[in-house]
Amino acid sequence: MRRESITTGGRARMPFPRALLMALLLASASAMPAARAADPAPAAAPAIPVSVAQAQLKPVSEALEFVGRVEAPERVEIRARVKGMLEAVLFKEGETVKEGAPLYRIEKPLFQADVENAQGEVERAKAALELAKIQRERADELLAKNAGTVVARDQAIAAEASAKGQLLTAEAHLKTAQINLGYTDIVSPITGKIGRTAFTKGHIIGPESGVLATVVSENPMYVTFPVSQRDYLEAQKEEGKVDLTNVEVRIKFSDGTVYPEVGRINFVDVSVSRSTDTVIMRADVANPKGSLIDGQLVRVELKSGKPDEKIVIPQAALIADQGGLYVFVVEDGKAVTRRIRPGGAVGANVVVEEGLKAGEQVVVDGFEQLRPGAAVRATPAAGLASGG
């Protein structure tokens, strides 16, 4: 069948079915954006639950930490000063002994005999001196009556002087014997705790036997620690001179516990070690309960000066990457990163020198899934405070 064209104003028109098809296509295309706009929007991501702690302004003292060692102010090695059989050990190992308390006893009979022998020598010397004195007086009388000679008188004087010398020698021997007898009782020269005994009853001991036991004093104790020249000079810059009377010395044990007694520096060495470039400092610390032990390795913390107000946050909030340390802060329900410059540690917390303000909420738990700008649901961290 032949299709007829419709002309209008001399212009040919396309056949009607084709025109209708094009109109339907255009109408469909114009309706598509409207249909898409009517689609529902995607649901927002759920807020991430996190625990937060407040950055607080706290008084914080400047502190330096060193490795130190506990030392007893008095440490005595007990040794035998005479040789003999050890008759008795008079102490219990590990106990506290008083000054003058008996520790060992060496058998006495031989030393007692030496004393008695020396006493006999003294008596003989006294008798000889008395005789020499009488003979000298008689020689003087005879010479005065022209019945004696000058030579006899001079001999009598010399004999008297010799007798005096023999008496002095005998008395010295007696004193030595008495001292040696006293050495058979070995006593503690100081008050302190005594260690193990190296010998027991029945052993032959003497000066060559070495150390029998060691006694160390207990209260107070010393703590010595090396301070680098750099730290020492930095401390001097504050006031131009280190005020030792204002320095608190705190001791921390290997398990992290802090010793309750506060020490004070009582000595700074007069020279710098050439090998380590450090100055040895020493503090005395009360030790009423005997918690500090001679030779113990500890950490020593020095605090001085008036405390400064510092921003303090829990160390649990710190996150590290290649750029340094940062924390997540909650602002308007969203997570925001803050680069910080930390200071020293204050227990389980850390001082923040730059990057935070007091009152800001830092994330301490749940930040593993956080991204900057993520919505968060913050709750206070239980049992975690940022106090100093």
Count of discrete structural domains: 4
State the CATH topology of the largest domain.
Elongation Factor Tu (Ef-tu), domain 3
Radius of gyration: 49 Å
**Can you give the helix content as a percent range?**
25-40%
Beginning-to-end CA distance, first to last residue: 101 Å
Separate helix tally: 4
Strand residue content: 35-45%
Structural topology:
Layout: E1 6-8, E2 11-13, H1 16-37, E3 48-54, E4 56-71, E5 75-79, E6 84-89, E7 96-97, E8 102-106, H2 109-144, H3 150-182, E9 185-187, E10 192-194, E11 204-205, E12 211-216, E13 221-228, H4 229-239, E14 247-252, E15 264-268, E16 278-285, E17 297-314, E18 319-321, E19 324-331, E20 334-339, E21 341-346, E22 349-354, E23 361-365, E24 376-380
Parallel strand pairs: 3-24
Antiparallel strand pairs: 1-2, 3-23, 4-13, 4-17, 5-12, 6-8, 6-11, 7-10, 8-9, 10-12, 13-16, 14-17, 15-16, 17-22, 18-19, 19-20, 21-22
Helix pairs in contact: 2-3
